[in-house]
Amino acid sequence: MKFTEAQRIRNLPPYLFARIENLIAAKKEEGVDVISLGIGDPDRPTPDHIIEELIKEARNPANHQYPSSVGMLSYRQAVAYWYNQRFGVGLDPRTEVVSLLGSKEGIAHISWCYLDPGDTVLAPDPGYPVYSGGAILAGATPHYIPVCEENGYLVDFDAISPDVARKAKMLFLNYPNNPTGAVAGGDFYRRAIDFAREYEILICHDAAYSDVAYDGYKPHSFLEFPGAKEVGIEFHSVSKTYNMTGWRIGWAAGNPEAVEALGRLKSNIDSGVFQAVQYAAAAGLTGPQEIVDRQNAIYQERRDILVDGLNSLGWNLTKPKASFYVWAPVPKGYTSASFAELVLEQAGVVITPGIGYGQNGEGYFRMALTIEKQRIREALDRLAANIGRVSF
Ligand code: MLT
């Protein structure tokens, strides 16, 4: 029997990291000791107090039943508490926070809440592929906004034509940024809020990396700025902050109407996060935060080794202030895909080609800092031995 896929599924490209996983598996089968600087997936353990809370709550039969699809009030209170401690932002846990099965899920589903077929969403290019993927699934059309090195990878609102802005219903922003590691300051967020007000656009800010930062830098939440809750929501999770990517728990916070719409959608299609996991995530959010600084010190050391190592091979990179990504140009004569292929074939090292984040990511590649420093050193040694010095 031949099944005809819906057009919106046919429009969806294969997911970047699914493709990379297949490549790694194939290389491993050939017996190659692959060093993956591909996906940004924290390698350090989830802190003990979070695991202890999970074990305790998993033993309670009351937690074995269907959870609330929008999250337990105590979990949402923990999110509100964390926002207050971390950013000085006040949130009403009943109306301004909804739990998610990881922020990726909410980022994809928000498009279903606000986009009809034919609608336009503004998505930065390069950008996390889920911004456009969710919109495509909703039958909408992403309009890509190029962001570039010269502009610090910040969206230039003055360069968006008023015709495009008038058509758009949503805008995705993401700082600290994946894949570029760029960060945004107060002036940028204030300008974004003005832009959203002028064109009545919902801002969806992805803040997954707000707590992965270096050299004492503390990234902002978009919700810190006046008017943010009127025009937008922020997606976040415990994944990157507390090494919990596999646990699948996050949240959206901010604009009450958008929070309610997401909650309504989710109550129709999923049954929420296992309550023991909600308790454990709450323990992370309300517990000791020194773990975050300790972890950032580890990533910072890795960042320094990687950036210094690449610079000694001919790159001229500035160290990113946040996120665990190093974004670098490909050497002369390569596309991002051909360079990634060369590095995998010659050195057994996985890097992510910039084209996977959009047309404007062409000419760059991304390396993640989520492996031990010894392996980063080894990756650099292999690059030095097999690729040598590069030019641009
Ligand atoms: C990445 O490597 O870009 C992230 O780990 C993807 C994700 O958070 O889903």
UniProtKB/TrEMBL annotation:
GO biological process: lysine biosynthetic process via diaminopimelate, diaminopimelate-aminotransferase pathway
Domain of life: Bacteria
Pathway: Amino-acid biosynthesis; L-lysine biosynthesis via DAP pathway; LL-2,6-diaminopimelate from (S)-tetrahydrodipicolinate (aminotransferase route): step 1/1
Cofactor dependency: pyridoxal 5'-phosphate
Binding site for substrate: 15, 40, 128, 178, 366
InterPro entries for the chain: Aminotransferase_I/II_large, DAP-NH2Trfase_DapL_Desulfo, DapL/ALD1, LL-DAP_aminotransferase, NHTrfase_class1_PyrdxlP-BS, PyrdxlP-dep_Trfase, PyrdxlP-dep_Trfase_major, PyrdxlP-dep_Trfase_small
Gene3D superfamilies: Aspartate Aminotransferase, domain 1 (3.90.1150.10), Type I PLP-dependent aspartate aminotransferase-like (Major domain) (3.40.640.10)
UniProt EC number: 2.6.1.83
GO MF term set: L,L-diaminopimelate aminotransferase activity; pyridoxal phosphate binding
EC class: transferase
Reaction(s) this enzyme catalyzes, per UniProt: (2S,6S)-2,6-diaminopimelate + 2-oxoglutarate = (S)-2,3,4,5-tetrahydrodipicolinate + L-glutamate + H2O + H(+)
Positions of the Aminotransferase class I/classII large domain: 33-383
Entry keyword Zinc-finger: no
Keywords: Aminotransferase, Pyridoxal phosphate, Transferase
SUPFAM superfamilies: PLP-dependent transferases (SSF53383)
Entry annotated with the keyword Hydrolase: no
N6-(pyridoxal phosphate)lysine PTM sites in chain numbering: 240
PANTHER family: AMINO ACID AMINOTRANSFERASE (PTHR42832), L-GLUTAMINE--4-(METHYLSULFANYL)-2-OXOBUTANOATE AMINOTRANSFERASE (PTHR42832:SF3)
Assembly with partners or alone: Homodimer.
Role this protein plays: Involved in the synthesis of meso-diaminopimelate (m-DAP or DL-DAP), required for both lysine and peptidoglycan biosynthesis. Catalyzes the direct conversion of tetrahydrodipicolinate to LL-diaminopimelate.
Family according to the record: Belongs to the class-I pyridoxal-phosphate-dependent aminotransferase family. LL-diaminopimelate aminotransferase subfamily.
Protein name (record): LL-diaminopimelate aminotransferase
Gene: dapL_3
